[in-house]
């Protein structure tokens, strides 16, 4: 009986890995990643052309004018929950240590 459950679990994991493999293979063969890289290269080439044009015109240039802001927000409900738990533990520990030092200072003074 136990061997049959392990066998089912094995085939389930193997099937899941196969589905992931097929998805990655299709995305590779269709050129998804290459098109993303080509788009970044295009944006970079446009920024270089704009920079050269501005320098030729004698404009005051800074690097921030030509770089694309790439900030990715990875927050979701799980990270927010983790942050809330972490903040709660930190507050609890700070209060506990503060009380401990107050007790110790009363004992030794």
Notable characteristics:
109 residues; mainly alpha; 3 domains; 3 helices; 78% helix; flat
Please tell me about this protein's structure.
This protein is mainly alpha-helical and 109 residues long. It has three domains: 1-30; 39-63; 75-109. It is 78% helix and 0% strand. It has three helices and no strands. The chain has helices at 2-29, 32-56, 77-108. The longest helix has 32 residues, at 77-108. It is flat, with a radius of gyration of 28 Å. 0% of the residues are buried.
Short description:
This protein is mainly alpha-helical.
SSE order and pairing:
Elements: H1 2-29, H2 32-56, H3 77-108
* Count of DSSP strands: 0
- SSE succession: HHH
Average pLDDT metric: 83
Number of domain units: 3
């Amino acid at each position: 009986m136990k061997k049959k459950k392990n066998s089912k679990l094995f085939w389930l994991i193997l099937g899941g890995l196969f589905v992931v493999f097929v998805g990655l293979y299709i995305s590779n063969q269709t050129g998804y990643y290459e098109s993303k890289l080509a788009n970044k290269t295009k944006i970079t080439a446009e920024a270089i052309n704009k920079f050269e044009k501005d320098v030729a015109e004698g404009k005051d240039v800074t690097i921030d004018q030509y770089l694309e802001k790439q900030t990715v927000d990875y927050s979701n409900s799980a990270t927010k929950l983790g942050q809330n738990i972490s903040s709660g533990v930190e507050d609890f520990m700070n209060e506990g240590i503060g009380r401990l030092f107050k007790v110790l200072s009363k004992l030794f003074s």
